[in-house]
Amino acid sequence: MYVVFAVAVVLIVVLLLLLDRVLKAVRQGHRRRDAAIRLTAAAASAQAQARRQAAVADARDALTTVLPAIQKEERGPRHVA
């Protein structure tokens, strides 16, 4: 009788440990999935920001080709006599 009780207790403990492992694995899977979603969103945001910066740089370059920046003269100021 005591042997059956001891075996039942050991079996219950083993089942509880297995249940704990399964629940930890499920929680870890949820955390990893959530992290992957956040990482994907961050990567998309970074790509959009890079595209905006590239568009700004292109616009800046296009503006300077039409309207060149004022350059300092090498000779210095002109004197009028």
Describe the structure.
- By secondary structure, the protein is mostly helical.
- 80% of the residues lie in helices and 0% in strands.
- The protein contains one helix and no strands.
- The N and C termini lie far apart (124 Å).
- The mean pLDDT is 87.
Question: Over the alpha carbons, how many angstroms does the gyration radius reach?
Answer: 35 Å
List the helices and strands in order. Answer: H
Unreliable runs: none
How many β strands by DSSP? 0
Helix percentage: over 70%
Q: Short description, anyone?
A:
This protein is mostly helical and 81 residues long. The chain contains one helix and no strands. 0% of the residues are buried.
What is the fold's blueprint, element by element?
Elements: H1 2-66
Key traits:
81 residues, single chain, mainly alpha, 0% strand, rod-shaped, 80% helix
